[in-house]
Amino acid sequence: MIGEWIDIGPTGQISPGNARTLPVQGGEEIAIFHTMDHQFYALVNKCPHKHGPLSQGIVHGTEVTCPLHSWKISLKTGEAQGDDKGCVPTIPIRVDAGRLYLLRSALMAARAPQVAA
Ligand code: FES
């Protein structure tokens, strides 16, 4: 099922503790995170609170702190942590021979949650 996975380039393009964004034609921008312990995660690049750019947040463990109002979002589940409520879609990502792959169907289906006015 190789065609189901989209090659988005080498793992070395994102240094540990950082993120990069990936535009998706007809879909949401995706944020790809590289944690300090060398795991990769992909989420829609919109905080579930007010759509802050999660890719610009601080990565700690398997969470990212949103740069706008400091909500903490799980990179594994996309869920807001603590007392905050909300969830952003995650995209399955895999590493193979030093390259990153995203699941095509999840990429197209991912939609950011509505933001309360
Ligand atoms: S937009 Fe992310 S915490 Fe408010």
Chain-wise SSE layout:
Layout: E1 5-10, E2 18-22, E3 30-34, E4 40-44, E5 58-60, E6 63-65, E7 72-74, E8 90-91, E9 93-96, E10 99-103, H1 104-109
Antiparallel strand pairs: 1-10, 2-3, 3-4, 4-8, 5-6, 6-7, 9-10
This protein binds FE2/S2 (inorganic) cluster.
Keywords: 2Fe-2S, Iron, Iron-sulfur, Metal-binding, Nitrate assimilation, Oxidoreductase
InterPro entries: Rieske-like_NirD, Rieske_2Fe-2S, Rieske_2Fe-2S_sf
Domain Rieske: 6-102
Provide structural commentary:
- The chain is mainly beta and 117 residues long.
- The protein has a single domain, classed as Rieske [2Fe-2S] iron-sulphur domain (Rieske Iron-sulfur Protein, 3-layer Sandwich), CATH 2.102.10.
- Helix content is 5%, strand content 35%.
- Bound molecules: FE2/S2 (inorganic) cluster (FES).
What can be said about this structure in brief?
This protein has one helix at 104-109, and strands spanning 5-10, 18-22, 30-34, 40-44, 58-60, 63-65, 72-74, 90-91, 93-96, 99-103. It is mainly β and 117 residues long. A hairpin with a 5-residue loop joins strand 3 and strand 4.
| Top CATH class | Mainly Beta
Q: What is the strand arrangement across the widest sheet?
A: 2-3-4-8
CATH superfamily: Rieske [2Fe-2S] iron-sulphur domain
Query: What is the CA–CA distance across the termini?
Result: 42 Å
Amount of helix: under 10%
Shape: globular
Rounded Rg: 13 Å
CATH architecture, by name, is 3-layer Sandwich
Query: Which small compounds were modeled alongside the protein?
Result: FE2/S2 (inorganic) cluster
CATH topology: Rieske Iron-sulfur Protein
Largest sheet entry: 4 strands, antiparallel
Low-pLDDT segments: none
Which structural class should the secondary elements be placed in? mainly beta
What is the mean pLDDT? Answer: 94
Number of domains: 1
Summed up, the helix count is: 1
Give the DSSP E fraction (strand runs of 2 or more residues): 35-45%
SSE order, one letter for each helix or strand = EEEEEEEEEEH
Total E-strand runs: 10
